[in-house]
Write a structure and sequence with these properties.
41% helix; 14 helices; 2 domains; Rossmann fold
Length: 333
């Protein structure tokens, strides 16, 4: 569900309405009010963050839960402020929720450090086994389960797509964050295959906007450059800046999610994260009804979306190969 298709009135209804629920669904709910903590990695006014939250709320609605009638929700928006993540996690746990829903590894790691007893459902998490969050995808074994966005090895697909769409590129700036649990593993995976694609990598940290701008400008001073943007909260927060810098310096770039291509990025490849938030509501529902996170398998993406922005390709003077166009799930003209 795209947020630009969701009217503000409809979003508010999802958040606060206690009417128009099927009688059968109402009868199934326990009489007491249940409490959910929601920990979002983006800013409260970010359309992408609102789209993800709306999808999660829609999933709860479909399961028969209504805010104000049988459910209370406490939301914290991290907005990329790493220094506050632990404090916000502690705030949510102190509210004694029945379950906490959290988005991305940047937030789930400090949350898990705060509690090993409150059930946690996550979405948009890269390789939870590799970061030690769960014992295995089939048997998580602890208080956390949810939906993974990919394994770290999938990061190499971005480099492959960049060479497919811009074969002349021999220098690649990889935008990642060493402060994010998924940042270094993604960069390392790309680094391992870079020689086979004949490219030289440069790591650029996803920190303050000014630092990103200076680093990209310095990288762009030499010819035959391109960029790979990793699937991290920091990249999503700075997406307009990054897309603008790619256009300004005429750098072909591959992005990790559809929202980047829809906002003017050249090409994106990644899972449907908004849909993951809707599906995660189903796991929250099952836990509220008595199931344990340890017994709910972590679910991997079933489909990756390839989106190409032909308008941006034209602006960069690139002819997208027919073989790449044929693989696209969506083409923006």
């Amino acid at each position: 569900m795209q947020f630009d298709r969701l009217k503000r009135r409809e979003f508010i209804t999802l958040l606060g309405s206690a009417t128009a629920w099927p009688l059968a669904a109402r009868a199934q709910q326990a009489a007491r009010m249940r409490r959910i903590g929601v920990f979002m990695n983006l800013a409260a006014d970010d359309p992408e963050g609102q789209a993800r939250l709306a999808a999660f709320l829609q999933g709860l609605q479909e399961a028969g839960w209504a805010v104000g009638r049988n459910l209370r929700i406490d939301i914290r928006w991290a907005a990329g402020d790493v220094e506050r993540n632990r404090k916000l996690a502690e705030e949510l746990v102190a509210l004694a929720p029945d379950v906490i829903f959290v988005s991305t590894s940047q937030l789930v790691v400090p949350l898990r450090q705060v509690t090993r007893t409150v059930p946690i459902v996550f979405a948009a998490l890269t390789d939870p086994v590799a970061i030690g969050l769960v014992e295995s995808l089939a048997r998580p074994g602890g208080n956390a389960t949810g939906f993974t966005s990919a394994e770290f090895g999938m990061s190499t697909k971005w480099l492959e797509l960049l060479k497919d769409i811009a074969p002349h590129v021999s220098r690649v700036a990889v935008l990642y964050s060493a402060d994010n649990p998924g940042g270094v593993p993604m960069f390392t995976a790309i680094q391992a295959v870079a020689p086979s694609f004949g490219v030289e990598l440069t790591g650029i940290g996803l920190r303050a906007a000014g630092e990103i701008e200076r680093s990209v400008a310095a990288f762009a001073r030499s010819a035959n450059g391109g960029m790979v943007i990793t699937r991290l909260a920091e990249a999503i927060l700075h997406r307009d800046l990054i897309i603008g810098l790619a256009a300004k310096h005429r750098l072909p770039a591959v992005y990790p999610l559809r929202v980047f291509a829809a906002s003017g990025g050249l090409i994106s490849h990644g899972p449907d994260i908004v849909d993951q938030h809707r599906r995660a509501a189903g796991y929250v529902d099952r836990i509220l009804r008595g199931q344990k996170p340890a017994d709910l398998p972590v679910q991997a993406p079933t489909k990756y979306e390839l989106v190409i922005n032909l308008k941006t390709a034209k602006a960069l003077g690139l002819d997208v190969p027919a073989t790449v166009l044929a693989r696209a799930d969506a083409v923006i003209e």
